[in-house]
Design a protein that fits this description.
The chain is an alpha+beta fold. It has five helices and eleven strands. α2 runs parallel beside α3. InterPro entries: EFG_III/V, Impact, Impact_N, Impact_N_sf, Ribosomal_Su5_D2-typ_SF, UPF0029_Impact_C, UPF0029_Impact_CS.
Amino acid sequence: MFTLKAVSTFEQDIRKSRFLAAAGPIDGEQAAKDFIATHAHADANHNCFAWRLGQVYRFSDDGEPSGTGGKPILQAIDGQALDGVAVVVTRWFGGILLGSGGLIRAYGGTAALCLRAMEKVELVARIEARITCVFADLALVKARLAALREVRIDGETFIATGAELVVALPEAQAGDIVRMLVDITAGRTTVALQA
């Protein structure tokens, strides 16, 4: 799964109607609502939208025939394996009716072209770990963790004998990372994974 790195827009004209897509990352339902409110245009005929956040999603046809606006936008999001994403496609009617199939292609296609052009970030499932090590091993432990692309050091607290690090480890590699840390410090480092 992927998410978007930033907000972007894409515009195209289809049979005299102007379609403008705005897409961006979201981290919650309120963020999705705020994104839609910010990128909807009051002077437009329709502001169709869709967003997905894990298993939770919403979409709206905003006055277009049922299933012709929001659902194709959601399918564009899902078709590119995206999560934590909101898309608003705004239509200014140009006088030519597109029909249901034309609307589906226009809304879904505009959203897909916008999303396809955007920079994406891979979503990595992480678990929290508390790593306790002595001062003599601290530099080595931090260097090895920093060398791993998906590891994030979220906190460091000094204790009487050394330090405790709060680290986000990629779930799929957590066991290997724990073994590596224990091995390079000859067992002096302890790691507690949070459930």
